[in-house]
Amino acid sequence: MAAISPDILRQVKRIELRTRGLVNSRFVGEYHSVFKGQGMEFSEVREYQPGDEVRTIDWNVSARMRRLFVKRYVEERELTVMLIVDCSGSSRFGTGERDKQAMAAELAAVLALTATRNNDRVGLILCSDRPEHTVPPRKGRRHALRLVRDVLAWPTSARPTDLGVALDYAVRALSHHSLVFVISDFVTPPIERQLRMVSQRHDLVAVVLDDPGERQLPNLGVSRLVDAETGRLVEIDTSDPTVRSGYLCAIDAERVARQQLLRRLAIDEVLVRTEAGWAEPLLRFFNTREIRGRRIRRR
């Protein structure tokens, strides 16, 4: 990678400042509850200290001793988190304040910083129709910010999207059970085989980036449109009702097919709209996972 421009470094700092508050106040606890709660063994009880979570209080022991005690657990292992981020030509598309690449960088920041606050290792795969850039999983805030910098600074590829290649690469690169986030618009050739293979070995989460400009064809009359990934030029009448209706049907069919595929493979989908941001979708995802985990443990 070429020398990093001061503008990129300023963007990294802005993203860290923008995400740090929520990471520290909300995401660290939610992440820990969801992804660390399944791999812990009871160790002992100790007296309550300010800052301990209420959910860890052992009420039976506390009643006998007439003061609060909490349960302590030993985590069986640390997590490895792998971020697979789409850097193909379509990632530069955006009709608002942030394009999909900028949104992917913020998502990478909040996920990487949250994981490192839990002492987990985080790695990165930037991909188009091939792995463009990889960073092995490591710990620490500086490493997490390095991943954000790489997402922002890596030049958008003119190559098309093929997430299957990145998923195949992740299977070879990850030697033990890991948490894998795929951040993309998921406009890709068929990937059912690769999704099934990764989800059988790892905890796979699909983070789908969506821009309002892609949901409805703008009414601009006769226009020339260029495919950002292939360079193909198409001239269409965007005001033609038949063209507009056909576009909406195609977009809807694509969305339904993706959702059905992910449900069939039991892969969580987090839909992030560029105009709305990542905070609420991620918090809903964490809450849903925690509720599901509690139900499973009760069984």
Helices and strands in order, then pairings?
Layout: H1 6-35, E1 40-47, H2 59-65, E2 69-75, E3 80-86, H3 100-117, E4 121-127, E5 131-138, H4 141-153, H5 163-173, E6 179-184, H6 192-201, E7 203-210, H7 212-215, E8 222-226, E9 233-237, H8 241-264, E10 268-273, H9 279-298
How would you portray this structure in words?
This protein is of the alpha/beta class. The chain has 2 domains: 6-29 and 78-298, Rossmann fold (3-Layer(aba) Sandwich), CATH 3.40.50.410; 40-75, no CATH class. 46% of the residues lie in helices and 22% in strands. The chain has helices at residues 6-35, 59-65, 100-117, 141-153, 163-173, 192-201, 212-215, 241-264, 279-298; strands at residues 40-47, 69-75, 80-86, 121-127, 131-138, 179-184, 203-210, 222-226, 233-237, 268-273. The strands form 3 sheets. The chain has a 6-stranded mixed β-sheet, sandwiched between helices. Helix 3 links the parallel strand 3 (80-86) and strand 4. The longest helix is centred in the first third of the chain and has 30 residues, at 6-35. It is elongated and about 80 Å long.
- The largest sheet has its strands arranged as 5-4-3-6-7-10
Helicity level, as a percent range? 40-55%
Shape: elongated
Q: What is the CATH topology classification name of the largest domain?
A: Rossmann fold
How much of the residues is beta strand, in percent?
A: 15-25%
Tell me the number of structural domains: 2
Q: What's the total count of β strands? A: 10
Question: Would you summarize the structure shown here?
Answer:
The protein is an alpha/beta fold.
